[in-house]
Write a structure and sequence with these properties.
With about 190 residues, the chain is mainly alpha-helical. It contains 10 helices and no strands.
């Protein structure tokens, strides 16, 4: 059973499960997520390091699921300065825990921030969440090694590039970076 995705449930069951899950987590664990979004860079970096250390020393499926859920949710938060922080924390978590499938994470991001189901109010956060999600996968250092996740990410960046008013060319820059890295590492194949 993969620790990266919760079992499907009805909305009522999911809400009850989230409340129960939240009660299981210690205050220390929950504070990491608040600190990851704080304006002070040292606080953010320290919180990310502490979160990773916490998850390494206390392996727990429910806490890993919760951490992934919170970091993915953070990719689309309203405070724009917090998005890169959550993206970096997610990248470092994926780098540290290589058993977490990248495609599962990308699927969760796209499910949470669906581009097909977004309304006007959620357009900007959804676009940025998807962009920062792909950047997290890339920054983990694992994306260029996972052909399926790489292809899905390239396709997503192509879709995101169709929204230049919101993203100002960032998906194209990310695509160029990923493809350049892929070619430099000698693993390029026809895409």
């Amino acid at each position: 059973k993969s620790p990266t995705k919760a079992e499907p449930a009805t909305p009522a069951e999911a809400a009850q499960s989230d409340r129960h899950s939240l009660l299981e987590h210690s205050r220390e664990f929950l504070d990491f997520f608040w600190d990851i979004a704080k304006p002070d860079q040292e606080t953010r970096l320290r919180a990310t390091e502490k979160l990773l250390e916490y998850l390494r020393t206390r392996p727990n499926d429910s806490e890993m699921k919760y951490a992934l859920k919170r970091l993915i949710t953070g990719l689309g938060v309203g405070r724009e300065a917090a998005r890169p922080c959550y993206s970096l924390a997610l990248a470092q978590l994926l780098q540290s825990f290589e058993d977490i499938p990248l495609c599962d994470i990308l699927d969760q991001i796209q499910e949470k921030y669906s581009l097909q189901a977004m309304n006007k109010a959620m357009m900007r956060p959804s676009l940025f969440a998807n962009l920062f999600g792909v950047l997290a996968l890339f920054q983990s250092g694992r994306l260029v090694k996972d052909k399926e996740a790489l292809m899905k990410s390239v396709q997503l960046l192509k879709i995101l590039s169709q929204h230049p008013n919101h993203l100002q060319g960032q998906p194209i820059k990310a695509l160029v970076d990923i493809l350049s890295w892929n070619m430099d590492s000698g693993t390029s194949e026809r895409m």
